[in-house]
Design brief:
It contains seven helices and nine strands. It is an alpha/beta fold. The two termini are about 30 Å apart.
C-alpha cells in the first residue's frame, strides 16, 4: 500500500496523533489507549491503534523535520484515509509571555523550508490549522485547567540556528519555533483533511530556561490529554 507504513487498509483509525519521536508514540499507546496494537515497525517508526473512551485512535511517529513528517503524513492521508491529524510535539518559545511548560495551539505556521518553494515557486502560502479542531482543543485545555496559548509557530529546517532567524519570526508574532507544523498544515490543505499542532514549550530561546526530563514528561501528558479529548468530542 505504501513504502514507509506497513499496515493494511483499516488498521489505522480516521483520527491520529503524531509525535515526532516513535518512542513517544509507544508511550501514548501504552498509557492512554486500550487494547493498542502495533501496525508499523518499518525503520523503527512505530505506529499503534487502540481505543480512547471507546473511540478508535491511532498514534504514529513521524521523525524529525518536515521532510520526514511529509512522508508519513502524505501516506496516512493518501493511502489510509486519515481524516484528522493532531501533532503533539515540543517547541522553543520566542515570546516572553509564553513560558516553559506552557502549551501552544498553533493557529498557523511560518516556514523557511524549500518544500514550500518546490510547491508554490514565487508564490507564498499560509499554512493554517483547522479552526473547528483548534476551537475544540482550546476549550478542552480550559476545561482541564491547562494554560494554552493560541499563536503561530515557525517550522524551521535548521535546529542549530547560528543566524538567529528566530528574531525575525518573533517580530511578526510567532510564539514558538519547531520543525514540522507547516508541512502538516500544507498537506492537510492538499488532501482536504483537518490538522492541528499542539506544542509543549520545552525551552525558552530568549531566557535560556529549559525543562527537566521529568517536567517534560508531565507537560507532554497534558498535551496528549488535550489532543485525545479533542478527538473524543467528534
Amino acid at each position: 500500500m505504501s513504502t514507509h507504513i506497513n499496515a493494511n487498509k483499516g488498521d489505522i483509525a480516521e483520527s491520529i496523533l503524531l509525535p515526532g519521536d516513535p518512542l513517544r508514540a509507544k508511550f501514548i499507546a501504552e498509557n492512554f489507549l486500550e487494547n493498542a496494537k502495533c501496525y508499523n515497525e518499518v525503520r523503527g517508526m512505530l505506529g499503534f491503534t487502540g481505543l480512547y473512551k471507546g473511540k478508535r485512535v491511532s498514534v504514529q511517529g513521524t521523525g524529525m523535520g518536515q521532510p520526514s513528517l511529509s512522508i508519513y503524513v502524505q501516506e496516512l492521508f493518501q493511502f489510509y484515509d486519515v481524516q484528522k491529524a493532531i501533532r503533539v510535539g515540543t517547541c522553543g518559545s520566542v515570546n516572553l509571555d509564553i513560558h516553559v511548560k506552557d502549551v501552544i495551539l498553533a493557529n498557523g505556521a511560518c516556514s523557511d523550508s524549500s518544500l514550500q518553494n518546490q510547491r508554490f515557486g514565487y508564490l507564498h502560502y499560509s499554512p493554517v490549522a483547522d479552526f473547528e479542531t483548534l476551537e475544540k482543543a482550546y476549550n478542552m485545555a480550559k476545561k482541564n485547567g491547562i494554560n494554552a496559548k493560541v499563536v503561530p509557530c515557525a517550522s524551521s529546517d535548521r535546529f542549530y540556528d547560528e543566524n538567529e532567524n528566530w528574531k525575525i519570526w518573533q517580530k511578526y508574532g510567532v510564539g514558538g519555533i519547531e520543525m514540522e507544523t507547516a508541512e502538516l498544515y500544507t498537506l492537510a490543505a492538499q488532501f482536504n483533511r483537518k490538522a492541528l499542532s499542539i506544542l509543549t514549550v520545552s525551552d525558552h530561546i530568549i531566557t535560556g530556561e529549559s525543562t527537566s526530563s521529568e517536567e517534560r514528561q508531565k507537560t507532554f501528558k497534558d498535551m496528549v490529554i488535550i489532543a485525545l479529548e479533542t478527538i473524543g468530542t467528534d
